Amino acid sequence: MSNGKSHRGLRSARWFASSGLRAFGHRSRTLQMGYAYEDFMGKPVVAIINTWSDLQSCHAHFRTRAEEIKRGVWQAGGFPVELPALSLSETFVKPTTMLYRNMLAMEVEELLRSHPVDGVVLMAGCDKTTPATLMGAISMDLPTIVMPAGPMLRGNYHGEVLGSGSDVWKYWAEKQAGKISEDEWRAMESGIARSYGTCMTMGTASTMTALTETLGMTLPGASSIPAPDSGHARMATACGRRIVAMIGEDLKPSDILSRASFENALVVQMALAGSTNAIIHLIAMAGRAGVDIGLDDFDRVARKVPVLANVRPSGAFLMEDFYYAGGLPALLRELGDRLDLSAMTVTGADLGAALGGAGTYNSEVIRPLDSPVSDALGMAVLRGNLAPNGAVMKPSAAEPRLLKHSGPALVFKDYDEMDAAIDRDDLPVTPDHILVLQNAGPVGGPGMPEWGMLPIPRKLLKQGVRDMLRISDARMSGTSYGACILHVAPEAYVGGPLAAVRNGDLISVDVDKRSLELEVRESEIARRLEEWQPPKRDYPRGYNQLFAQHIQQADKGCDFDFLAGTEPIPEPDIH
Ligand code: FES
């Protein structure tokens, strides 16, 4: 080991190094797997949390990458052990992966606690897997490094570049408007996801891995490397080598994560025009680290930091271009003194040192501070009688005319009602209407699904309308765009004021003033809420019941109330 902890001081030595009956079992069962004593005795045991599955297309390379991480662990004198965890495919898991983010966080924390491991490499990337695995690892507080999955290659359709999610929404709207054929739509299906790796727009995956790097929890530059690039495999091996050294140095998340590192993450979130989902995840992750970050911190930073990453959906390019332009280290360097470069990283040095060789190679993709992508805000927190605890919006992804708007509400009491009505030719809707979706929040969804980018009604699409104001207690995909006001808290399902909105009520939005108001007399709102009855949905047993009882609202990061905080949990007895 490089320095610091002796072999005897290793956590795993409690399992392997004693002369007791149980240690006999731990050693004999390790030998059973074909390892020799010299493979594991006295060595730091590195857990590799692998979120691979046959239904996780973004992590299809993780079986190979796990072997590459192991190579690095062996090289550095460690003993790698792979522990599979929930793979949480954003595409396949229903009703939403957000329902299971905390389950994965619990799984990671308890996998680490219950096994003989001294440090961990987290293999994550697809949306919730990054915050979930990190939340668990932060709470466990063993030396931790994140190996980001990396974005997939650019999409391609008849010579045109396609971006994950963003172009799906865009061309779906064109299809609904009758502008593209079924055959063209089918051809896009085979061109939009050309390799393994995460969505290659600045969706939740790329946002969260970039923020994780900013927090100091990855090797420098790791989050931007495209998944199929050979550099990605080398980075995986480097993670394996580095985690062994980190165990020797006893460098834990609690030594890395600080108020300064989370403030840096807020700055980068704005410079990326990052996914609105990151707001919820960062609040939850900070909560696990004992750092109090709230919605107002996001709004404060958003006012000072322009959008520099020219990546869809707020910009023009994709993650592959971002990597070639210098990747996240280049963006961090452009941000200069907006960041606290003294924040610690997994390298054992500060963020400033990690930027040593960084440079911008395409200033169209990664803009300098004096030539941002747009003057529009990367995010704004709105409050008012419709969202007393806040709601969020991404003004940079909305048509500017909608940033100050009053219009009548068209209310859908849940997703099914919206889905059944939205494309009807007789839907009483005009471009000035504000679509309102209720009961799609953390409890109501359940799991706060990504329904917040309500579809533009077909009737309006045919008239050429491509954006309108939409308000919900749901989230939206980081690859989505439009004038969508999200995360309204408290949610309708628990009796928040959103539940009181009725068809035709006037709603006023003023992003400059950060206001979101239901223009109905307060006494009338109170009367309606008095009459309001909680919608009926019973979960007689199981995880859904646990979720409904313990999930916190969006402004609190949607962590379970019993998982939040930093109270230490005793190590397991080994008898
Ligand atoms: Fe996995 Fe988008 S579906 S990152």
Task: Describe what this molecule looks like in 3D.
The protein is of the alpha/beta class and 575 residues long. It has three domains: 313 residues, no CATH class; 37 residues, no CATH class; 158 residues, Glucose Oxidase, domain 1 (3-Layer(bba) Sandwich). The chain is 34% helix and 12% strand. The protein has 21 helices and 14 strands. The strands form four sheets. It has a six-stranded mixed beta sheet with strand order 12-11-10-9-13-14. Strand 13 and strand 14 form a beta hairpin. Helix 4 packs across helix 10, helix 5 runs parallel beside helix 6 and helix 6 runs parallel beside helix 13. The two termini are 28 Å apart. The model has no long low-confidence stretch (mean pLDDT 94). FE2/S2 (inorganic) cluster (FES) binds next to loops.
Q: Uncertain regions: pLDDT < 50 for 5+ in a row?
A: none
Gross morphology is globular
Structural class: alpha/beta
- The count of helical stretches stands at 21
Q: Roughly how much helix do the residues carry, as a percent range?
A: 25-40%
Distance between the termini: 28 Å
Mean pLDDT rating: 94
| Overall domain count | 3
Q: In what range is the share of β-strand residues?
A: 5-15%
Produce a short descriptive summary:
The chain is an alpha/beta fold. Helix content is 34%, strand content 12%. It has three domains: 2-153 and 195-355, no CATH class; 155-191, no CATH class; 380-537, IlvD/EDD C-terminal domain-like (Glucose Oxidase, domain 1, 3-Layer(bba) Sandwich), CATH 3.50.30.
